[in-house]
């Protein structure tokens, strides 16, 4: 698996892993995670496709700007990286925060998004209550650092029954969170708080769309993900997952992704004929 770092613009550089050959699939992780969230998905998927798993701005080994940034800025980072990699079209799969970035990319740079997936994510904007929660989180991190915040967040990420059964995975997720830089976490919280509603993208774009939700998700309930249906929309409910099916039910998520990518391949062939 090749590891790379690419300077996108000014002082922003993105770290990513690039493995496999074939049609490109981009994986974007959630808040306070890294590309390593996809550890069980990337290996198998790269047997069939070229898989590019990226650390979003302010996360993992990627840089963060001192200036405030938006979800649209994060999407622009991805667009510029794909341009540097000479990738004209890709399937983009975004988990949680990565899903918000995916929707912004699909709206602002639609030519590069052949298909997309939201995995435990939503097109809705933050409610007033959620915005208040973001502000409190920013303040807490400012006063206490990352540890207490991540300890609390990690409990919400997994389905209740998995917290005890998957202690090693919970610790793995916590460790990634602890290592998130303070200004990266705060910048992302600010960006998520101020994001716009993009439900219309899910409802109006006619490209293949994958929607994945967890039955036990305490952060984004399935009804917030499954807002529409149609022949081009693939919906999958993960029965034993909370917010982290790539770790809680990786084999089942992999099946859903591979099935969806098979549909994308078929869709592409039909459009070329």
Automatic annotation (TrEMBL):
UniProt KW Hydrolase keyword: yes
Domain of life: Bacteria
Membrane-crossing residue ranges in chain numbering: none
Alphabetized Gene3D superfamilies for the sequence: alpha/beta hydrolase
UniProt-listed Pfam families: Abhydrolase_1
Repressor listed as a keyword: no
InterPro entries (UniProt xref): AB_hydrolase_1, AB_hydrolase_fold, AB_hydrolase_sf, Epox_hydrolase-like
Keyword annotations from UniProtKB, A to Z: Hydrolase
Residue ranges of domain AB hydrolase-1 in the record: 23-250
Name of the protein described by the UniProt record: Pimeloyl-ACP methyl ester carboxylesterase
Native source organism of the sequence: Sutcliffiella tianshenii
